[in-house]
Amino acid sequence: xxxxxxxxxxxxxxxxxxxxxxxxxxxxxxxxxxxxxxxxxxxxxxxxxxxxxxxxxxxxxxxxxxxxxxxxxxxxxxxxxxxxxxxxxxxxxxxxxxxxxxxxxxxxxxxxxxxxxxxxxxxxxxxxxxxxxxxxxxxxxxxxxxxxxxxxxxxxxxxxxxxxxxxxxxxxxxxxxxxxxxxxxxxxxxxxxxxxxxxxxxxxxxxxxxxxxxxxxxxxxxxxxxxxxxxxxxxxxxxxxxxxxxxxxxxxxxxxxxxxxxxxxxxxxxxxxxxxxxxxxxxxxxxxxxxxxxxxxxxxxxxxxxxxxxxxxxxxxxxxxxxxxxxxxxxxxxxxxxxxxxxxxxxxxxxxxxxxxxxxxxxxxxxxxxxxxxxxxxxxxxxxxxxxxxxxxxxxxxxxxxxxxxxx
Length: 408
Ligand code: C5P
Description:
Elements: E1 5-10, H1 18-28, E2 32-37, H2 47-54, H3 65-70, H4 73-78, E3 82-88, H5 90-98, H6 104-111, E4 116-120, H7 124-128, H8 130-141, E5 145-146, E6 150-153, E7 159-163, H9 167-180, E8 192-197, E9 202-203, E10 209-210, H10 217-228, E11 232-237, E12 249-252, H11 256-266, E13 271-274, E14 281-283, E15 304-306, H12 310-315, E16 325-332, H13 336-347, E17 351-356, E18 368-369, E19 371-375, E20 378-381, E21 385-386, H14 387-405
Parallel strand pairs: 1-2, 1-3, 3-4, 4-5, 8-11, 8-13, 11-12, 13-16, 16-17
Antiparallel strand pairs: 6-7, 9-10, 14-15, 17-19, 18-21, 19-20
Helix pairs in contact: 1-2, 1-9, 5-8, 9-10, 10-14
This protein binds cytidine-5'-monophosphate.
Cytidine-5'-monophosphate binds at residues 196, 256, 274, 276, 278, 307-311, 328-330.
């Protein structure tokens, strides 16, 4: 981020307030922000607050003569390393997809030859509307990267997808996007890391499956954080509900067996992080036809067989084939450290990220995580933090090891 300039277009939505924190994160990391506030955006955050945090003039009007004399709007759009639209409202997305240029924000977006990242935010019906779906497909086809939206409570009182991604997630997506533009070096440049994430779905028949409550949020954040440090990341993801990160190579799988095959194909690697909640069992001889309901109250018996343990398989590969650093997760509800320490030994991995998933912690499926890192040296309790922050901390620790070992 150091030395990079982000042109930040703040659209008119309640999520605009999150941009103040985003600006702070970018500047703290050594980046600069050229802020553009749409007329609607200025109803939600004031130009004064944006200017104070960005430390720069806020641009708002296409026909500002002093702006044109100092730096024309074309130049403004080209001087940036990345253009970020947050919140990207339904209206802004429609203007972008249609190539309209009736105000400064849309003109800049049409005039730029720089990569663009959008963080959509809107009411869930607007997000699900056929017009927005169409516009999103057009923007994606145009090469525009998208971060979020997330699912959750919305300011309008409804629940669903449409909440803007959190500032930390947008920051991670910006780092990733700058990386894609070939600008990054990074402590993990030249290192390849495989990450597994999400649940697996194990079919019973063509319409039914066994699953679990993993959202894939922690694995996606880890993949993004590793990518932001310059690693070449392969994210093997089961059917996750959390948004997939921008940057890593994504391999989508459904079952544990498919996940193992994808991990095998992604090897060799310098590091591997197994954050997936892999189903321990699959249904033996899943039916290829829908199982019919028996007439007389009879229920089908499901015979289960054990799935391959992907983490164990990778951790026990022979030297030379085994990644230098293998990290597993242990979701426990009691005796966290003792169980996770035993799991580390049983699996043969280097580190275990142990987390307490008792229902009262709200960790499974929630935005935060409280982790104890188990290594050969013992247990290290990390403070409860957002999954994005936990991912950043883990990625930094991985970089310490892969840097120090000079793994080829
Ligand atoms: O044995 P348990 O499921 O508790 O181990 C959890 C760790 O092992 C996680 O890192 C998970 O991703 C990994 N795992 C796996 N394949 C399995 C089961 C678990 O990679 N079949």
